[in-house]
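Researcher: Please translate sequence to structure tokens.
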Amino acid sequence: MPGDDAYDTYDRLISLLDASSVDYRLIDHAPEGTTDAVCALRGHPAFEAAKCIVLRVKVDRRTTRNVLAVVPGDRRVDLDAIRALYTARYVGFSDAETAERLARAIPGTVLPFSFDPGLEVVADPDVVARHRLYFNAARLDRSLCLSGADYERLAKPRVEPIAGPAPE
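Model: Translation complete:
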């Protein structure tokens, strides 16, 4: 059940942060999963948010990779950049069921971390450069803020330019 997995994912994230002695802040708010709305609830600009999208990357006929793309909240994932990065034939959004299984969270609460070896994390350089980085903490009603540097140190994403222009 996604709800149970979400709490397991939340607990795993908090355990990781506490064990790493990372300075972070939890923010309780009304349940919300869309970037613009949750940024307003948390009181920060969208460029300080981490937008997390699970992608299906078909490298060739036999090889498919699952990628968690992390971009600033005011930008979109550049699918062509992901395609070039993996020299892939096709890149598209993962179906909801696969995304929930791999991210261990429901849409709108996906973390910029992966706790599944089958989900690779690629973060845009603008994400790890943030002094403050906000994201939903595997729950619609609670978010987390930490530095981009701490995020990079703990999540160990592949850092590549994957953010396209802001949505119109």
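Researcher: Any highlights?
Model: The first helix runs from residue 2 to 19.
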